[in-house]
Specification:
The termini are far apart. The protein contains 24 helices and 2 strands. The protein is globular and about 65 Å long. The longest helix has about 40 residues, at about 350-385. With about 575 residues, the chain is mostly helical. The relative contact order is 0.18. About 65% of the residues lie in helices and about 0% in strands. It has a single domain (about 15-445), classed as Sodium/glucose cotransporter, CATH 1.20.1730. The chain has helices at about 15-35, 45-50, 60-70, 70-85, 85-90, 95-120, 125-130, 135-165, 175-195, 200-225, 230-240, 260-275, 280-285, 290-300, 300-320, 335-345, 350-385, 390-415, 420-435, 435-440, 450-470, 495-520, 540-545, 550-555; strands at about 485-490, 495.
Length: about 575
């Protein structure tokens, strides 16, 4: 085993930093140029700014969804979890992405159809139209914004990890510590404001190419430098089976034992169900030009699961390499394990490419997430409750401004809260967002559930999930929100909290639906038709939206595109 120095290296890696700056400037240029790519007559509508004109084809969508799903959490936190505690907290991400793609294939094409038929921009738009309930729509929108914020913050944590390993940040005043992060997100905010979803769609090409290059080189090169895979797995097993001096139990799990089966599979299943409830995932789906693009991508995207498996195993490689992820303040931070591994074993120029790949891999999803959260605010809070008569141009303007606020909020989140809380709150985001599953996914197939019952189920699921997660204490630090699984006596084991809250949510929604139907409670107006869920590009109803109410209906502007309506 190779031993690394215990003391942090505070010198700046000039070569790597130069490479990162050059590549960052390159994607910045691409981000601003994206405003001219497939540009419509105007960008003053959410369909153009927030959904890229709803015209992305197979290749663009493959890179966009891949860039959307595989975030800094993937490149930093997954191998870091493998490095620190092993398979249960790290490798579950691999089966979860495998389970994920059939969900996309089955559900998302129906959501695409009904959304294009009615001009829906957000999942909350669909829920409001399906159930005739602004309250339920607001609950879905608020949950989406709430769950997205820590997810964006986690992208900043990934960028910080790269900066620290290069010798930037960690200690000192705000200029020394956080100025590079401010500059990165100021540039991100600028080209997102200018180009909308087109910017991350183009940059995703660069990001994915860099990531594939770095991971495949690392998987081929690094094992040979540390004694091969047999040595790697032996070192990982030795670390995970060793007793933790603080907790008195094993350090982690090399191979999950019988008592860890339930946490493992519930984390995988619950995470797969939750991921495409996130607004940024749905935004990528709604940007495609027809429903078959979604299905083709659901068939092709498992290639990313292979990449993820290789990436996760780099956490074990770091163990065998003796990597010491020491932050600039002298504390041990497992989130630095993979950047430090690259710093230790690769030439500075290639380490710079790897660091740039991770940083750009954080910027792409952060841009999509901020756009998706802004669209939720604009459509389902601003238009529904503040200014119902808002024009497409006004919606686009509000959404651009809201995207800036979301980025600033995420930046404040990272600067003033413990980084470990950012990671734990991201897990909490999964618990929250899964509670929108009944209203969105079941609504794609049936109108049986009562709107008030769905709202009650959502409220109980959110309350139970948040309270249960709060009471999970970190065994080392003793902090609340210390994990995403909790003991559930009815199942005789520990279960992913999100899945438990979802089951409670569903049971309450079903029981109350029966009660409310018996009481003949008003069910709201369903604005959809069965044929809406199978509509495809070329269907005349997709391009000729039903008439609107209010001032906008009297105008001659298509609310989806901001262009004159065809008569």
């Amino acid at each position: 085993m190779i031993t690394a120095a215990v003391a942090p290296d505070t010198s700046v890696n000039g070569v790597a930093l130069t490479i990162v700056i050059v590549l960052f400037l390159g994607v910045t240029v691409i981000g601003f140029m994206a405003s001219r790519w497939r540009r419509a007559a105007t960008m003053d509508s959410l369909d153009e700014w927030g959904l890229g004109g709803r015209g992305f084809g197979n290749w663009v969508t493959w890179f966009l969804i891949g860039g959307d799903i595989y975030t800094a959490y993937t490149f930093i936190a997954v191998p870091a979890a493998m490095f620190a505690t092993g398979a249960v907290t790290g490798f579950f991400a691999v089966p979860y992405t495998i389970v994920l793609y059939p969900i996309i294939f089955i559900f998302m094409s129906r959501l695409w159809s009904v959304s294009h038929r009615h001009g829906y921009v957000t999942p909350a738009d669909f829920v409001g139209g399906r159930y005739g309930s602004k309250s339920l729509s607001l609950a879905v929108a608020g949950t989406g914004i709430l769950a997205t914020m820590p997810y964006i913050a986690l992208q900043l944590v990934g960028i910080q990890a790269v900066l620290e390993v290069m010798g930037i940040g960690g200690t000192g005043n705000i200029i020394q510590k956080d100025l590079p992060l401010f500059l990165a997100f100021a540039v991100l905010a600028a080209y997102t404001y200018s180009s909308g979803l087109r910017a991350p769609a183009l940059i995703a090409f660069v990001k994915d190419i860099l990531i594939y290059l770095v991971i495949f080189v690392a998987v081929v090169y690094l094992p040979a430098k540390v004694g091969g895979w047999d040595s790697i797995f032996s070192a990982a097993e030795a670390k995970m089976t060793a007793t933790n001096e603080v907790t008195g139990v094993a350090q982690g799990s090399f191979i999950p034992g019988p008592g860890q089966y339930m946490p493992y599979w519930t984390l995988a299943l619950g995470s797969a169900m939750a991921l495409f409830m996130y607004p940024h995932s749905i935004t990528a789906v709604l940007s495609t030009k027809n429903r078959n693009v979604i299905r083709r991508n659901a068939s092709l995207l498992p290639a990313y699961s292979l990449l993820l498996g290789l990436l996760a195993l780099l956490g074990f490689v770091a163990i065998a390499a003796g990597t010491m992820p020491i932050a600039l303040d002298g504390t041990v931070n497992p989130q630095l394990a993979i950047p430090q591994l690259f710093e230790d074993f690769f030439p500075a120029w290639f380490a710079g490419i790897a660091f740039a790949a991770i940083a750009i891999g954080a910027l792409v999803p952060a841009a999509i997430m901020s756009i998706a959260a802004a669209n939720l605010f604009t459509r389902n809070i601003y238009r529904d409750f503040i200014r119902p008569e808002a024009t497409p141009k006004q919606e686009a303007k509000v959404s651009k401004l809201a995207s800036l606020v979301v980025k600033v909020g995420a930046l404040v989140f990272v600067l003033f809260l413990d980084r470990t809380l950012a990671l734990n709150f991201q897990l909490l985001g999964g618990i929250w967002i899964l509670q929108t599953f009944p209203a969105i996914v079941f609504g794609l197939y049936t109108r049986w559930f009562h709107r008030w019952a769905l709202l009650a189920g959502w409220a109980v699921g959110m309350t139970y999930g948040t309270w249960t997660a709060y009471n999970v204490l970190n065994p080392v630090t003793g902090k609340h929100f210390g994990g995403a699984v909790a003991e559930l006596p009815i199942f005789g084991g520990r279960v992913y909290i999100a899945l438990t809250a979802f089951v409670i949510n569903l049971v309450i929604a079903a029981v109350l639906t029966v009660v409310l139907r018996a009481m003949k409670a008003p069910e709201g107006v369903d604005r959809t038709e069965p044929s809406d869920f199978l509509a495809d590009a070329g269907d005349p109803r997709v391009s000729d939206l039903p008439p609107l109410t209010g001032d906008e209906a009297a105008g001659s502007t298509d609310r989806r595109t901001g262009r004159p309506r065809e008569r």
